[in-house]
Amino acid sequence: MWNGKPKALRWLYPGMRVKRYALAAALGFLTGAVGLAGLLPPLDLPPGLAWGLFLGGGLLGVLALRSMNRSILAVLTEPEEVPERVYVRRRLERGPRVVAFGGGTGLSRVLKGFKEHTANLTAIVAVTDDGGSTGKLRTAYGLPAVGDLVDCLAALSDHPALPELLAYRFRRGEFGGHTFGNLFLLTLHEAAGSFAEALRQANAILNLRGQVLPATPEAVRLRARFQDGSEVEGEEALRAKGGRVREVFLVPEPKEVMAEALLAISRAELLVLGPGSLYTSVIPSFLPKPLREAILKSRAPLVYVVNLMTEPGETDGYTAYEHYKAVAYHLGRRPDVVLVHTAPIPEAVRRRYAEEGRYPVAFDPRPFAVDGVRVLTGDFREEGPLAQHDPKKVVQALLGLV
C-alpha cells in the first residue's frame, strides 16, 4: 500500500508513459481476437478481412508491449543492454559456489577472475590492517579495517566506473589521505551502528556479483609471536620487527562472525586461500574460531595459492613449503591443493623486486610429496613489469578442481 492506495495504481499517474502503450496493446489484441473469431461461425467474416484483423491486431499488440517495456527499462538502463545483462547474470548464477579468503591486492585480483565465471562468490576478508587511511579510521572510530574490504567490493562490482570511484583519494582538507571507499564504509557503519549491517548494505547498494564479508565484524588486532619468544601487536609492527614468526592470533579473540560467511562455507564447492601476505592477509582471514571450524567441516576442495615473491619483514627466505606449513598450522587442516608459480620470472622484474628485499618464492616438490599434498605448478604470472598472479590463469586452474 502507498498512502492508503495500492502501489499498482501508480502506473495510472500522468507522465508515466505506460498507459498509452497498455491501451494500444489491449486494442491490438482485442482486434486480433475479433479477427480470429471472424474465421469461425457465427461471424464468418470474409477471410481476407478476418486474417487482416488477426495479423494486424496481433502486430499492434506486440509492438505496443515492446514499446512499453523499452519505456520502463529506459528509466533503469539502456534497453539494448538488457538481453546481454540478463544472459550474463543467468549464466553466472549457474556457476560454482566459491569462497575466497584473504585480503589486499592478491584476493581482489582473483575475485576479478572468478566473477567472469560465477556469481556464487563470497570473499571473506581480513580486517586487521592498521596502516594508512584504514589505520587512521580505526583509531578515530574504533571500527575494523575497511581498506581490503573496499578493494574486494570494487572487484566484484558490475559497474566499470566503481573501482576508480572507490579508490579515489582525497588530497586536501580534513579528508586528505582517505579514499572515498573507506569513507563510504565508515558512513554506512556510523548510520547503521553495526559493521555487519554496514557490509550488508554495501553489498546491496553496489549490486555485486557475489558478496564481500569481513572475517569478523569486530575491531580486532593482529598479534604476532616470534620464534625468539618476543611478541608485537599490529601488522605494521610485525613487518617492522622482522624475523621468523611462530604464530599469529587475534586480540581480543573475536566472538562474532557473520552468519552469511558460515552459510557460504557450508555450501561451498571450492575454498580458496590467498594469494596475499601470509601472516597479515591470508591467515587472519580465517583465524576467527567459527570460520576455522566451518572450514574443517567442509568437504569442498581447499586450495592455497602461494605468493610469487617473499615479503620483507614477514616471509623473508620462506619457501613455498614453509608458506603452506604456516597455513596448515594455523588452520588445523592441510590444504588439499597448493598452487605454486614455477615459471621463470624475467630478470628485469627480479631486479626491481630485489631492490625492495623481495625475491621469488623457492619451490621444492619433495616435501609436498612426503605430506601427500597435491601441487598445481605452472606459469601463473601476469605478463608485465610486476610479479603478480594472472587472474585468468589462476582461476582456470582452480575451476578445474570443481
Write the layout of secondary structure elements.
Elements: H1 19-38, H2 47-76, H3 82-93, E1 98-102, H4 104-114, E2 121-125, H5 132-141, H6 147-156, H7 162-167, H8 180-192, H9 195-206, E3 211-214, E4 221-226, E5 231-233, H10 235-241, E6 245-251, H11 259-267, E7 270-273, H12 278-282, H13 289-297, E8 302-305, H14 320-331, E9 337-341, H15 347-354, H16 365-371, E10 374-378, H17 391-399
Give an overview of the whole structure:
The chain crosses the membrane at residues 21-42, 48-65. Pfam families: CofD. Required for morphogenesis under gluconeogenic growth conditions. The protein has 402 residues and is an alpha/beta fold. It folds into 2 domains: 7-76; 88-399, CofD-like domains (Rossmann fold). The chain contains 17 helices and 10 strands. The protein has a 7-stranded parallel β-sheet with strand order 3-2-1-7-8-9-10, sandwiched between helices. A 3-stranded antiparallel β-sheet has the order 5-4-6, covered by helices on one side. Strand 1, helix 4 (104-114) and strand 2 (121-125) form a beta-alpha-beta unit. Helix 1 (19-38) packs antiparallel against helix 2 (47-76). The longest helix is centred in the first third of the chain and has 30 residues, at 47-76. It is elongated and about 100 Å long.
